[in-house]
Structures are given as C-alpha cells and as structure tokens.
Amino acid sequence: xxxxxxxxxxxxxxxxxxxxxxxxxxxxxxxxxxxxxxxxxxxxxxxxxxxxxxxxxxxxxxxxxxxxxxxxxxxxxxxxxxxxxxxxxxxxxxxxxxxxxxxxxxxxxxxxxxxxxxxxxxxxxxxxxxxxxxxxxxxxxxxxxxxxxxxxxxxxxxxxxxxxxxxxxxxxxxxxxxxxxxxxxxxxxxxxxxxxxxxxxxxxxxxxxxxxxxxxxxxxxxxxxxxxxxxxxxxxxxxxxxxxxxxxxxxxxxxxxxxxxxxxxxxxxxxxxxxxxxxxxxxxxxxxxxxxxxxxxxxxxxxxxxxxxxxxxxxxxxxxxxxxxxxxxxxxxxxxxxxxxxxxxxxxxxxxxxxxxxxxxxxxxxxxxxxxxxxxxxxxxxxxxxxxxx
Length: 390
Fold this sequence. Notes:
By secondary structure, the chain is α/β, with parallel strands linked by helices. It has 13 helices and 17 strands. Strands 6-7-8-9-10-11-12-13 form an eight-stranded parallel sheet. A five-stranded antiparallel sheet has the order 5-14-15-16-17, covered by helices on one side. A four-stranded mixed sheet has the order 3-2-1-4, with no helix packed on it. The radius of gyration is 20 Å and the shape is globular. The two termini are 20 Å apart. The mean pLDDT is 97.
C-alpha cells in the first residue's frame, strides 16, 4: 500500500492536508496523521487537479529532434499533403520524439491525454505503435487514450477504412473523422462509416470539424442525429467546431442546445474566437482544451503546457475576473476528465491522486503566471518536481 500526505495545501482557498492512499484521495482535512506515508510540506501552495490534454497529436511531434522550418503552404489540404510527403524524411512517427514530448508534458502537470494518431495507407498503424511504445517508456507517469484518425481523408484515401478498423481491433479506444464535407466531400457517407465502426466496436467518436458557416452547422446536425440514433450520448466529441465559434448569436445558441441535448462534448485548442465557455458550461456541455500539434510539420509553435492553453482560452474569450479565468482552468482539467470519461475527478475524496502543485494563491494567478510546477502527482506517485521528471 502506497501513501502520500500533502501537508498544508491550499484547496479552494482553504489550507488543509491531502492524504492519497493506493492511488486515490482518501482524506482532505487539516491535521491528518498518516504514519508511514511519504510527507510533502507544501507551505500553503495551491493544489489543482492533474491537467487533461483532450486534443493532442503526439505522433506528429518533432519535440527533442531537429529544428525544422515550417514549409507547408497555406490551407488545410496543403498542410495534410506536406505532412505526408515529409514524414519519411524526418522519421515521423518517432517513439523517441513522442517520449520526449510526453516527459515534458508530465513536468507541466499533464496526467492524461487524448491523442489522435494518423492512420492511412502510407503510415499504416505505425503511429499507434510509436505512441504506445512511448507510453510504456513513461512507466505510468501519464496515461493516454488513442483516436484512430484519418488525417488524409477516409473516403478519398482508399484503404483507410480497413486500416481504421484494424486499429480499433488492436484496442484503439476511439474512431476519428475529419471534415466529412470539406475533406471527404460526402458528409453523410463519411459519418455513416464512422458511426458504424463506433457501433460495431463499442468505441467513442472524436471528429475534427473545421468546416465553418452553414456547411459546418449542417454537419453538427448530422453528428447529433447519429449520436442520438445509436445512444452514444457522452461518447461523441466534436473537435475544433469552428462553425460554433464563428457563429452569430442565434446560431450559436441553437448549436449549444443541440450538442447539450445530444450529449456531445467539445474539444478546443482555444483559438480566437474562443468557444463560448461560460454559455456551454451553463448548458451542461462538457468542454476540454488541448494543445493540438506541438512543434510539428503543421506548426512550429506549441509547448505542451495546459496552463498556457487555459491562458489562451481565457484571453481569447475576454475573461478577466478570477471566476471566469477559473472556468478555463477547469476546462484544462475537470472538463478534460469529463470528456475522456475518467469518472470522479478533481481535488476531492475518492478521486484519482492526479494532482498539480503550484506556488500561487489561486487558479487565476496560475493562468496568468504559469509558474514552474512544484510537484506533479499521478495515481498518488510523485512523477515530477520543480519542472524535472522524477
């Protein structure tokens, strides 16, 4: 039995102790006595739930490798083609690069991640293999779930559907999709295939939807229709969802009501304009934030820091009060846990011992300063200290 006692922590503005036993929070109270437990005196530092990156592309990263100047012409399809052409030259997917990025994310307080992994006739299932190999090297310091992702399109890329099914048969937890209209040019058939695979294999669905305007709204409606028909409430995510972020107020309200009623969650990288997080929370829609690609052929940017992602969400949404900024932190932790189905989560009794310690007074200050993470705890085990992996 392993035990960890975090003494003199600040939780929701209150100084208290946190006792973690066998990977879960057993007690939260002042003056806890736990003979035999490893004790960390926090001196009043803030404890937050472990961060959950709900939208990543670990297999694409060049983290820890050479600096590669951005070479893709503008436009989604140009970025897709550039990635396919240059992958072999740069040795992507690389388990070494994925490992380096995951280690860095752990030091920044991320304890769980949902990552899309490319599946197409050129790369096969190599992305699945690389990410799984990297996770083994991390030895439980971080957990992950995979989405079989048809980055190059599904219907327009012969053989991809069969490979997606092989990935699901190999235990990948979710089936992905990408712009059923904008990329595959047949939203009905694309979604029929995706949801049929989800139904057959009992997996979740996570669909990239960049299409904007009325075309994007139409696809929101198609996804909601299939989610209801198959009883998949709580198992379907729309990633990006630019038709919502760029919508007029009436359309925005309609889409929020639609996804709330269907039980669809949303994943965002916090661009500008940002998702209307306050309104989505009020409607009961689960929202997660994610880093998307980190230093890859799509973009030279990205740090893997979920506090930075919360900063982007708060700033792009025009948040300035502590209460509103805290909503962004919740999306980077509790929201991600809800979207990924982690169950009871947070700094609460019975939740997993996935915690982040920062030397600030509240979560709003954490977003503004984004300090070094003093401690990162995964399943009750200290996995990083002062920005260094343990």
